[in-house]
Amino acid sequence: MKKFLLGxxxxxxxxxNAQKGSILLGGNVGFNSEKIGDSRSSNFEFTPKIGYQxxxxxxxxxxxxxANVEVAGFGTTEQYKIGAFTRYSLPLSDLFAFYTDLGAGxxxxxxxxxxxxxxxxxxxxxxxxxxxxxxNFSIGGFNYDNLDGKNDPRQERVGFNFGRTxxxxxxxxxxx
Length: 176
Description:
8-stranded antiparallel barrel; 1 helix; mainly beta; disordered N terminus
């Protein structure tokens, strides 16, 4: 299972180095499992993105998330997000580029029909491998989200996780 998850992580796609007039397709796939004493939980998440690069530095598009969170003894929760993102890319050389994504949108969960919004900022490094294929590396970012359910109090979360996470992705740039 660990080899499979490592393979999925390596094929996780995020949007790549900007080239004016290009369409970018990508996303993330994630899995998390936790056991503390007799308590177990697992989380599977898929986050696709599609964008249009309207200059050599700027990309704009839409993003979404479908997640399934299972907690032993409490059942399964489905989570959804839909929003927009913008990316600023700064080529450092033919091989490297730095980029930062800013995403924001609407989110909901099946638990108590909760709804809210999210905002995230993620800086990353792109390494150009060949013909628009590349590797993306990020080590965290900043995020804010809130949820307001029918029977639950309003939830607000702020996260600043630089150095606590490590993401690797493969990306492809499709020229028009």
